């Protein structure tokens, strides 16, 4: 069993992979019983595995925390893409072309003192 990590904003996903029958569980719940009920979010998670036809060969156990639903789904997808590359380098050009290997390092900018938000200023009065 090997662990693969994916991150997006403040979301972090750790994927443990074992040979098996294609069962995926997220935070100890089957994927169809988790809060990833939206088809588009579930497609983000499952697309990389389905494209490479690796779904039925392995069991995936995912621990995900932080961020929102979309950020968590993208973190899981990135971790699964790392697994597929480690499995076979032949998958790398396919996954890269489809954008599964792009990591996005943008995070929320911190709030500065004397301002209401990170860059917003209070209203300025000339008189």
Give a nutshell description of this structure.
With 127 residues, the protein is of the alpha+beta class.
Number of domains: 1
Strand % is 15-25%
CATH architecture: 2-Layer Sandwich
Strand and helix order = EEEEHEHH
- Across the major sheet, the strand order is 1-2-5-3-4
Structural class: alpha+beta
Largest sheet: 5 strands, mixed
Total DSSP E strands: 5
Unreliable spans = none
CATH fold assignment = Ribosomal Protein S5, domain 2
Describe the fold and architecture.
The protein has helices at residues 39-51, 69-87, 91-98, and strands at 2-8, 11-19, 24-26, 29-30, 58-65. The chain has 127 residues and is an alpha+beta fold. The protein starts with a strand and ends in a 29-residue tail after the last helix. The protein has a 5-stranded mixed sheet. It is 31% helix and 23% strand. Helix 1 (39-51) packs parallel to helix 2. It is elongated and about 70 Å long.
Descriptors:
127 residues, structural constituent of ribosome, five-stranded mixed β-sheet, 23% strand, elongated, 5 strands, Small ribosomal subunit protein uS9, RNA binding, 3 helices, alpha+beta, Ribsml_uS5_D2-typ_fold_subgr, ribonucleoprotein
Blueprint (SSEs and pairs):
Elements (H helix, E strand, L loop, with lengths): L1 E7 L2 E9 L4 E3 L2 E2 L8 H13 L6 E8 L3 H19 L3 H8 L29
Parallel strand pairs: 3-5
Antiparallel strand pairs: 1-2, 2-5, 3-4
Helix pairs in contact: 1-2
């Amino acid at each position: 069993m090997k662990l693969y990590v994916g991150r997006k904003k403040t979301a972090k996903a750790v994927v443990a992979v074992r040979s098996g029958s294609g069962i995926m569980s997220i935070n100890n719940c089957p994927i169809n019983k988790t809060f990833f009920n939206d088809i588009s979010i579930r497609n983000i998670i499952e697309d990389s595995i389905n494209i490479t036809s690796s779904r039925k060969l392995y069991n995936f156990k995912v621990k995900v925390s932080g961020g929102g639903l979309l950020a968590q789904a993208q973190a899981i997808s990135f971790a699964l893409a790392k697994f597929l590359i480690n499995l076979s380098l032949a998958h790398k050009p396919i996954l890269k072309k489809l954008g599964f290997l792009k990591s996005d390092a943008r995070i929320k900018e911190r709030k500065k003192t004397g301002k209401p938000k990170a860059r917003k200023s209070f209203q300025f009065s000339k008189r």
